[in-house]
Amino acid sequence: MEFSAGQIAQFLNGEVFGNPEVTVSGLSKIEHGEQGTLSFLANPKYTEFIYTTKASIVIVNSSFIPEHEINATLVKVEDAYGAFAKLLEIYDQYRRSGLVGISSLAYIHPTAKVGEDVYIGEFAVISANAVIGKGTKIYPQVYIGDGASVGDDTILNPGVKIYHACVIGNRCVLHAGVVIGSDGFGFAQQEGVSKKVPQIGNVILEDDIEIGANTTVDRATLGSTIIRNGVKLDNLVQIAHNVIVGEHTLMAAQSGISGSSSVGRFCQIGGQVGITGHLIVPDNVKIAGQSGVSNSLTKEGALLMGSPAFDISDYRKSYVGFRRLPDIMRRLDLLEKKLKELETKD
């Protein structure tokens, strides 16, 4: 499909600077722009490319003022990055919109309930008493266990595994290799042997959640592991049994939350963060990458860093001292040597 600069500006409530009739049929990065594509400029570090890009249309912030001649037609909006993200979402929805129908190579148990306008790809398995909502896309090799349910307009990418009795909400996106409802890590030491504690709970994902590739969310021992509305988990995140993650919290790759911990709303957790078990993290907390949280926190909106994590301003001061330790130790050695020399003279 082709869209003109004028149409794009109208959709984004923007203003055209250049030829409103120029059309695009694809998207591109500004540094690799080609004729007939749409790009955007939001980060000032890429400003140099707007003067050389071959993209036909570029979305820019309304505050942008060119310093040199630009060949592309500009569409000025309040938030260039947000506007382009909106267009990407529409493009992705359009790309998927043609996927409707059930492959003859999929298996659907006779007791499963499947909504209208779904897509179920090759070698997907829908087990007994599972429920699939309308408009949901289930790609090849997805497994949905007994009694599990998936809401409306959700996307399960190739190789997703939903264990029995787990609940997936509406408009969720689970990327390839995600596992929902595998057993929590529960073992009891008996006579020197680790014996498995049955994990008989489930996992509940609420609405508008996105989970990155190969992330795992363990089922609860009893009750539910719960991921609240709007949470976004990166690739390779581990959520243990009986954890609760609050609304709209973000977690970057390789982070993990141990069993029975609770993370608040609107938190931001960097990559490779570890949170130990049975802790509480309040709302709006930000934890820098590679930090370790080993005690419950009490202050909402805290900004933490380090292992064990503590206030980032104190961490930075401490880190300055840490980097000076070799020099401080050398000076101490010299002082001790001089002190011994003085004692010897006495």
In short:
The protein is of the alpha/beta class and 346 residues long. The chain has four helices and 40 strands. The strands form six sheets. It has a twelve-stranded mixed beta sheet with strand order 8-11-14-17-20-25-28-31-34-37-39-40.
Provide a descriptive summary of the structure in words.
By secondary structure, the chain is of the alpha/beta class. Helices cover 17% and strands 29% of the residues. The strands form six sheets. It has a twelve-stranded mixed beta sheet with strand order 8-11-14-17-20-25-28-31-34-37-39-40. Strands 9-12-15-18-21-26-29-32-35-38 form a ten-stranded parallel beta sheet, with no helix packed on it. It starts with a strand and ends with a helix. The model has no long low-confidence stretch (mean pLDDT 93).
Question: What descriptive keywords fit this protein?
Answer:
flat, UDP N-Acetylglucosamine Acyltransferase, domain 1, twelve-stranded mixed sheet, alpha/beta, Udp-n-acetylmuramoylalanyl-d-glutamate--2,6- Diaminopimelate Ligase, Chain: A, domain 1
The percent of residues in helical segments reads: 10-25%
Quaternary structure annotation: single chain
Mean pLDDT: 93
Q: How many helices does DSSP assign?
A: 4
At the fold tier of CATH, the topology name of the largest domain is UDP N-Acetylglucosamine Acyltransferase, domain 1
Q: Which CATH architecture of the largest domain would you pick?
A: 3 Solenoid
Cα distance spanning the termini: 94 Å
Strand content: 25-35%
CATH H-level superfamily of the largest domain: Hexapeptide repeat proteins
